[in-house]
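Wait, can you check?
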Amino acid sequence: MDLQRLNQIMSDMLDSETNFEMVGKFLYNEKYLDDFKIIVSSDGGSPLPEYFGNKKFDDKTNAGVYSIFSGSKLFFLDKTLLSSPLHSKVDVDIDYTISFDTQAISYFDSMVKQKNAPAVFIKALNYIVENDLNLDLMPYFIENSSKLCDNLTKEATLDTLKSYQLLRSLDRDHYLKQGKIRSSLSESINQAEIDALVCASENFHQLYQASGLPTYEYPLIWLIHIADIYIGSNKSPSNKLNDFLRCCHDKFHNMPLRYINIAYLLFNKKSNFMFFRKIQKGRDRKDLLKDLENMAWDLHHLHWLEDNKAFYDKDLKKFAIKMILTFDNGLVELIKLKAVKALAYSLKQNECFPMYTYAEDDSLKSDIAVYFSPELIKERADKLKNKELNAKALLEKTKNSFLENSLSEDSFY
């Protein structure tokens, strides 16, 4: 099914006033949704039971486990569930998975080395182990794989990787009973797993270098352009936003709504997000670039949660609830800024299709509406055809232009 048809069907389903109406629309479009699993987020007023969702461990920092979904209740749809007899009890098989980023792994590493890990992390680990939640450590692996291929950082990263493997193989029963960390695997098996991780890092790094496959590059490219317009122009907020919209359309032939929303809030100073403060401080461009790189990894982790297919088993028997353990208030703000209203997953296409909620107001909607006319959508699609992009090369050019204060004069096509 083409993306435009899916968007139309999903938008129509989300406009339903009741869950019963939504089911009717699913059945009406069943020939298009035959291989889809759909999760729809609902607010607190829904009669649905609350799912095993957000859990805050510290009010000051907002440290906690957060779902990408906008509501506290979820409605599940697929053809298997809907083929159940009317009014019968239906069991929904759910896979809860918690992602760990670099900061979370570093806290666990401190526990392993018997250093002072933050109490809030110990609370989080206890919560995950007590509820037997699955772990996804790939965000850490992706962010740090290149460090295993650099002689300057390899030794320190390899040392942390031992804790990474220990977390993967944690003996949860022993931890619950004794409060002590040990592996459920033998030392030889753990070492074999670590060796395999190092080999995988080298292969991933070589593939990345050769192909220019993106990880955090596109989030960083968008953030650099936003920051450049913000600090390099005395124009009004609306004109700054128009500059960014033209940049998206003319230079990249893509209209990334998350980044448009970020730009709008920053330019209009409509939010006191911690995420924005480093840009607003007016720091030196070289120092700011380092901050933007960290911010880009935050955004990459969100993209990973939304787009990663590995959360689903091959037979598509389970619904996946994706969450992240974070101690970064800025990342929590970003999750809320563009939370997932619904998620559709297609087995045939092996793709996740998220539908979002936005903190938009009418002025922003009117600014971007012109770029979503059928003519301009087609224009962007035509320009992107047969165009090979190397994300790494594109990022290097963007960074150099930003440091030289010449980004607005640059052209990538």
